[in-house]
Amino acid sequence: MTRFVPLAAAVLLAGTLPLQAQQATTPDTQQPANGAAEDPSPTEDAAVSPPPEEQATEEATADGAIAAAQPPREVGSDWPYWGGDAQATRYSPLDQITPENVGQLEQVFTFHTGDLPKGTAEGKYSPEVTPLKVGDDLLMCSAMNILISVDAATGEENWRFDPGVPNQAIPYGATCRGVSVYSNPDAAEDDACATRVIQGTLDAKLVAVDVETGAPCEDFGENGAVDMWQDIGERVPGWYAVTAPPAIVRGVVVTGAQVKDGQAEDAPSGVIRGYDAVTGELAWAWDLAAPDENRNGPPEGEVYTRGTPNMWTTAVADEELGLVYLPMGNSSVDYYGSNRSDAENEYATSLVALDATTGEEAWHFQTVRHDVWDYDLGSQASLIDYQGTPAVLLPSKQGDIYILNRETGEPLTPVGELTDLPKGEVEPDFISDTQPVSEWHTLRKDPLEEKDMWGFTPIDQLWCRIQFRRANYDGFFTPPSTDKPWIQYPGYNGGSDWGSVAVDTDRGIIIANYNDVPNYNRLVPRDEVTSKPINEMETGESGGANAEGAADPQAGSPYGISVNAGWRNDLTGVPCTRPPYGGIRAIDLETGETLWDRPLGTARRNGPFGIPSFLPFDIGTPNNGGSVVTAGGLVFIAAATDNLFRAINIETGETVWSTVLPAGGQANPITYEVDGRQYVMVSAMGHHFMETPVGDEVIAWALPEN
Question: What pLDDT score was predicted for residue 28?
Answer without folding.
Answer: 38
